[in-house]
Amino acid sequence: MEIFGVSLQGLAGQLLIGLINGSFYAVLSLGLAVIFGQLNIINFAHGALYMMGAFLAWIGLTHFGINYWAALLLVPLLIGLLGIVIERALLRWLYQLDHLYGLLLTFGLALIIEGLFRYYFGISGESYEAPEALRGGVDLGFMFLPLYRGWVVVASLVVCLATWFIIERTKLGAYLRAGTENPKLVQALGINVPLMITLTYGFGVALAGFAGVLAAPILQVNPLMGSNLIIVVFAVVVIGGMGSILGSIVTGLGLGLVEALTRVVYPEASAVVIFVIMVIVLLVRPAGLFGREN
Amino acid sequence: MTDAYSPNVEMLRITDLHAFYGESHILHGIDLSVNRGEVVTLLGRNGAGRTTTLKAILGLTGRRTGSVMMNGRETIAMPPHRIARLGIGYCPEERGIFASLTAEENLLLPPAVGSGGMSLDAIYAMFPNLAERRASQGTRLSGGEQQMLAMARILRTGARLLLLDEITEGLAPVIKQALGQVIRALREKGLTIVLVEQNFRFAAPLADRHYVVEHGRIVERVDKNELSSRMSTLHELLGV
Ligand SMILES: Nc1ncnc2c1ncn2[C@@H]1O[C@H](COP(=O)(O)OP(=O)(O)O)[C@@H](O)[C@H]1O
Ligand SMILES: [Mg+2]
């Protein structure tokens, strides 16, 4: 059977790639959304911290014998701690100012982090082998599914849904939602909002670190891997709506698939389709598909 | 409750309080004190600085100087959440109901800041409408219901000092009456209340003492028993 001159197997393969890219878009844009909700800062350092996550996994494995599974836990923790330091030392001072300052500061941070990794590791890239348990694949009948790729999609979805659940359905999430609307009042009701903001930034960038570890076995571990990806992720955020939790998850996955379908139907457009959609959304619904207009 | 009414124990003492919003100097040396179990009002014309006084107590303005003692503790250098945790409940002028929370989530949001707060059941008995609408989005409630919700959520926390900003503003007479009942009930329970009111007729029978604020200063202090003899002064100051 053929669709658009592509076999079903080819189509399924493309869709899987789309789903994997979409998973990364979702986890990264989710982190950006969570951070934007509390800090009102567009975290340009996100891509660099994602890259750092991949590198820390690689360094852990090659220099310290820390395996993939341990890295999946430790690296987000480390990146989260780094985030806490960044928030306390730098971002804290910018909240009274225009959004633009936070953006510029995090952009500068991204350049510094990338510069450092480029200096120490060059740009040729390192490879990271998938963990033993996830090598190989299964035949699904209509396609061959490499296990690791299936794992990436599942792990991303679980993390996204868990985050969504915490924010939308728990007491802690109620604090976060209320804090997004009116942080001063939330603090006047007795909640330690500054601490909440610090931990939110830590959590948001930990998500980037997590995505970095997930990506290490699929992509080249390379100092530029973050800046390549993050541009698309920003477009995803704009399309989904700044700060929307569900929006970032759904839009991330959806756009990964749209990109894949475009690659099947009209490959020449696949690199730009997301940006075309972004322009259309900005014109028609500036707050984004899931954003609240105000 | 053992501390129900202790008229001579000071709950809140404000001395020479100045407060700023950015460069604007709004409060110019507020002095007032409130004893445990008292109900005190801040009266004044629009823009006099009453809301700012409540915000300055909680540390919600910009820079502030002077002294705000809460139960004998200096709070002028504390961040708002620590001040609130000393046992203050704040009901802001704009009500501050969160749109992204259900009515019940709004109600359960503030953490306990003292012991002896009302149970959820007791609150729903006091505000039956809120029980019916517990699953609705907070801002879908009517104005009156939102005001009830803003009051109810600080009654759960065990706060001993309530700062209430224009709670009757824009509400129907029946709802104003109901709120008057609530204030009386709270006073009987020994809570201390600072009430900012535009509506003097609502405030007069409830309060032990009235302060008149003008241009960020206290310009008049009228006790309950002086009320009838000082009425003309008040009328003049408030333009009512
Ligand atoms: N956020 C703010 N920034 C600057 N000025 C403010 C702000 N809020 C209030 N003011 C000014 O402070 C003064 C006192 O306001 P407010 O305390 O709200 O008065 P009241 O509650 O007595 O009506 C007014 O002149 C008002 O314009
Ligand atoms: Mg006011």
From TrEMBL, chain A:
A Pfam family matched in the record: BPD_transp_2
Keyword Transmembrane helix among UniProt keywords: yes
Superkingdom in the source lineage: Bacteria
A Gene Ontology term for the protein's cellular component: plasma membrane
Molecular-function annotations in GO: transmembrane transporter activity
Membrane-topology annotation of the record: Multi-pass membrane protein
Membrane-spanning residues: 12-36, 48-66, 72-91, 100-121, 148-167, 188-218, 230-258, 265-284
Cellular compartments annotated: Cell membrane
UniProt record similarity statement: Belongs to the binding-protein-dependent transport system permease family. LivHM subfamily.
Protein name: Branched-chain amino acid ABC transporter permease
UniProt organism field: Candidatus Methylophosphatis roskildensis
UniProtKB/TrEMBL annotation, chain B:
Name by which UniProt lists this protein: ABC transporter ATP-binding protein
Source taxonomy: Bacteria, Pseudomonadati, Pseudomonadota, Betaproteobacteria, Nitrosomonadales
Pfam family, one: ABC_tran
Keyword presence, Nucleotide-binding: yes
Keywords tagged on the record: Amino-acid transport, ATP-binding, Cell membrane, Membrane, Nucleotide-binding, Transport
Organism of this sequence: Candidatus Methylophosphatis roskildensis
Residue intervals of the ABC transporter domain: 12-240
InterPro entries: AAA+_ATPase, ABC_transporter-like_ATP-bd, ABC_transporter-like_CS, BCAA_Transport_ATP-bd_LivF, P-loop_NTPase
One MF annotation (Gene Ontology) recorded for this entry: branched-chain amino acid transmembrane transporter activity
Family per similarity comment: Belongs to the ABC transporter superfamily.
GO biological process terms, semicolon-separated: L-amino acid transport
